[in-house]
Amino acid sequence: MLKLSTNYLVNEVIILKVLIIGNFEGGNKGDDLVLDSLITMIKKYNQNMNEFIIPGLSTEHLLYIKKICSNAKIIIPSTSRRHFALRFLSLKTIYYSFKANIIITSAGILFDRKLFNPRYSFICTLYPILLLAKTFNKKCKVLGVCVDVITTEKGFKKKVLQNTIKLHDEIILRNPNVVNFFDEINYKHYKVAADCVFGLKKPEIKKRSSNTIALNITETLVVSNAKKRNEFLYALNNYIKKNMEKYNFVFFSTNKNDTEFIKRYIKSLDFKNNGVEFEIFDATEHSFEEINVFLSQLSLLIGMRMHSLILSLLNVIPIIGIVYDKKVSGLMMQCKLENFCFEFNELNYENLDLSINEIIKNSESIKNHIYETVNKKYIKVNCEVKKIFENL
Fold first, then answer.
1. Which CATH number fits domain 212-375: 3.90.79.10, 3.30.470.30, 3.40.50.2000, 2.70.70.10?
2. How far apart, in whole angstroms, are the C-alpha atoms of residue 166 and residue 142?
3. Per-residue model confidence as pLDDT tens digits over 62-94
4. Contact predicate 54/74, CB 8 Å
5. What are phi and psi for residue 228, nearest 5 degrees?
6. Which letter, b or e, does each residue of 307-340 get, where b requires 16 or more Cβ atoms within 10 Å of its Cβ?
């Protein structure tokens, strides 16, 4: 009798632990979307990454993350308070950095105007975590995904920033303008792509006529020069009041604090006596899909927050960028939309009116340009992320 012997090849299930360090405490839709895009692309290109450790993740956002990766294990270590630059430096975060196979630093983490900055205290907390992880967890790989660097530091502080960067095995930059800094510090393991939120959605042109203009302004104006701030708000007020019959103005917020600032700003417009009320679309209370539906109905968006502009671009909506920070001007330059970009203290009725009229007049060609630009960014981001993650 012939005996048949059957061997079964059993594939070992490898589960990679991924520590993602970023500002995911809630209240800022841009930060939430950075995390969403990271996890979406990670799961797309490497199914073995099935345990995510996300310090400080808000409870509300956890529910959404579970929809993206329903079969993954999510661990949320508590984080220490912002004060004294201790934002991520908790014992639990350090503990998990020793256990992680991969540590990912996300877009905003290396964005730091000053090293010891009470508002963005990233570098001085990230550096010790990465240093300890690299010292005691030799197998751990540190990746920076769609990172940006804005710094005016010199001497010791610049050295800390430089050392933090060099603790990364590989970095994907979101802004080509910072390449010189990486070359200056002799860091070679970088690629240039775009903000990872561009990887969330392929652009799509929807032929729809609209007279709705969305306005996105940020509460960070309160820390700007009072005279310049008032001049900017006056120019905006003036334009709204003179064009109420021509356009439908709505407000678009990607940040909880911005929403409160917008409410105060609307009160200052004093239109209620005339029965005029302005819609505020708070993106922090809506899903990515709902945001896309809202934005697709606009004729254009005038925005200050970078991710308000990116979200509009994803929906092929023309934008006017108001620069309160270099990352906004960097985005507008990358998209070759510099003609529609203004420093917030340079905006006046005339140049705003001129830009809006030009966009309305040349809407089709501008949308075609946006589509081609954003589609390239979608492909580039996915391509670079795939290269990093698929073979880990």
1. 3.40.50.2000
2. 10
3. 888 888 887 889 998 877 654 444 556 678 888
4. yes
5. -65, -40
6. bbbbbbbbbbbbbbbbbbbebbbbbbebbebeeb
